[in-house]
Amino acid sequence: MAPLGAADVETYARLLQMADERRLDTGLVREALHARHSAVRAEAARAIGQVHGWEMAPMLRALLADPDTAVAANAAFALGLIPHDSTSVPALDGALDSPGPVAIEAAWALGQIGAPARHSIERALTSGVARADVTGALLLAAAKLRPVPVDAVRSYVDAPNVELRWRAAYAFARSYVAAGVRTLLVHRHDPSAQVRAQIARGLNARAAGDSLRGAALDALDTLARDTDAHVRIEAIRALGSYGGTARTPVLAAIHDPDANVRVTAAQTLGRVLDGTRRPWMDAWNADTTFMYRKSLLESALSVDVVLPAADEDNPDGWRHFGDWRYRAAVAGAAMQATSVDRIREVSLPLARDPDPRVRVAAYSVFAPHVDSAEAVHHRWRRDLMIWALEDYDYAVRAIAIGSLEGHARASEVPAVLRSYRLALRRDTLDDAEIAAVRYIAAAWRRDSAAFGDSLRAAIAALPVPTDPHVRAAAGDASIFRGWSKTSRAARALPWYEQRVRSLVMPALAGRRPHVEITTERGTIELELFAADAPLTVDNFLTLVRAGYYDDVRFHRIVPDFVVQDGDRRGDGNGGPAYYIRDELNRRRYDRGVVGMALAGPDTGGSQYFITLSPQPHLDGGYTVFGHVTSGYDVLDALVQGDRIITIRVP
């Protein structure tokens, strides 16, 4: 591909700036679509979808026939990003016969549109004439339909192509229909571990029902002893849905050689064991690792068993450990407790812990119960959250305010306002600010007449936030009518031009940046997709070079799903003092793909995740900006809490 000329660089940079500002400049897009360079035209098509430019959907539909397949494919992808665009179904249906990636993106977009596209998806699958890669995309589109079209999907579970088999099994695993279970049972010995993992996932009790319960349990018992750890993990999870009947294979799994299988078994035990203490103590003594025992604490409390580590009177219990993670584990375990009294016993003392991460865990447990049915008898729960509005930690305040929002009232707005002003003075992240604005807006909508003149004046005197997320939290509440909902001001154009030259142009020429993640279990190498997500890659590399990720732990690992890190705080609530925009692109969440972790649209910062297995439901929802090129054995061995020594650019 020829390099971008000076005019191309400027146009490309203007498109990045437009997308970063979340505004549609129709004149710029039309100009870019007439550029000589394919990359500029393709970026213009994608940018329409990134800013949800529904008014240019007719142009995107016309671009489906563009002779440049990169442009046409991006147009199809962009149509899938525009919400509720059922008018594009006929055009996307016609594009299923297009060459190259265009048909694949058309199939994905049809899946995004959903029910209005059902006929097109079913027709294309039953005709059996599409290319294998297009059929695979159609199977994933079918997985989004409710109900899943069983007859259209069934024949692909025994296809010679393994990609088609796992996608068909994936569709059934997400469908919870007995007909899908019957098909999966027939193919439970598939030679591909990826397919078997989806089969195990699909054999849960909800889908099997009474008629297929015995056959599904037999199959899961075998799959729980599979040679592949990913299969065993999915089988153990599915076995948990059968309750005490599945006790034996789940208990056996706590002795599995794979650490993440043992963690999964510990997480599942609460669904298969009752409150008899002896089996729980045997399970506790089976493994001394932190993540296993943390998971076991949570499971035990779900059947009202308090293990020694969580016992307040035990001097050797975890609540007395110096490492905050152990105290937070006790506080958070009460989330699974069966009664508010048990929650109070386990977590309330830790709401006063000196470490804010422990307090966050404790308040997170109480938050769902603040206004529960018996709230009138437990006023102390709401009072506890009111008290927390002045906590010095932003995450504690955000949780407290959010827990009160469901029954927001004018009488509490002064306290919330004080908390908001505290956030303005102290916080580097906007979680508490957003929560406070949401609360005030909810109280206003509920009973604006209760807002006295002094309260209205106090709110009117608030400075207009510069952060668009805080402004957006006000919604349509007229009390904030002076706040503009416009997008943030982007950086100056030269900044974007520099990113085009330093990242996009080398990537288009085949030179992508790489980084090495050195963990205590070994090294993982990543290749970064600088042309697909240049601003995200730039942000990540900037943090890497600053040493931001050094000595950080993987704070979240869900076996056979994702590993996640990038929070120097350590509890999942941390990040840099800014957000970056999503850069949704056509890259898919296959195994080993790197994506930005979010708390909502356009809330990326430093936290990222790597998929442990394909996760198609994430496609088009989270920015993909890289993939693993080596170190899969290290990736699979990681357990929550493992440490990153350093990330560096080689």
Furnish the topology, listing elements before pairings:
Layout: H1 6-21, H2 26-32, H3 38-50, H4 57-63, H5 69-81, H6 89-95, H7 102-113, H8 118-127, H9 132-142, H10 150-154, H11 162-173, H12 178-186, H13 193-202, H14 205-208, H15 213-223, H16 229-240, H17 247-253, H18 259-272, H19 277-286, H20 290-301, H21 324-333, H22 340-347, H23 356-366, H24 379-388, H25 394-404, H26 413-426, H27 431-447, H28 453-460, H29 468-473, H30 493-508, E1 514-519, E2 522-528, H31 534-545, E3 552-553, E4 556-558, E5 562-565, E6 593-596, E7 608-611, E8 624-630, H32 632-637, E9 643-648
Antiparallel strand pairs: 1-2, 1-9, 2-8, 3-9, 4-5, 5-7, 6-7, 6-8
Helix pairs in contact: 1-2, 1-3, 1-30, 2-3, 3-5, 4-5, 5-7, 6-7, 7-9, 8-9, 9-11, 11-13, 13-16, 15-16, 16-18, 17-18, 18-20, 20-21, 21-23, 22-23, 23-25, 24-25, 25-27, 26-27, 30-31
Write structural notes for this entry.
The protein is of the alpha+beta class and 650 residues long. Among the domains are: 1-146, Leucine-rich Repeat Variant; 374-480; 496-648, Cyclophilin, CATH 2.40.100. Helix content is 51%, strand content 7%. It has 32 helices and nine strands. The chain has a nine-stranded antiparallel β-sheet. A hairpin with a 3-residue loop joins strand 4 (556-558) and strand 5 (562-565). The radius of gyration is 26 Å and the shape is globular.
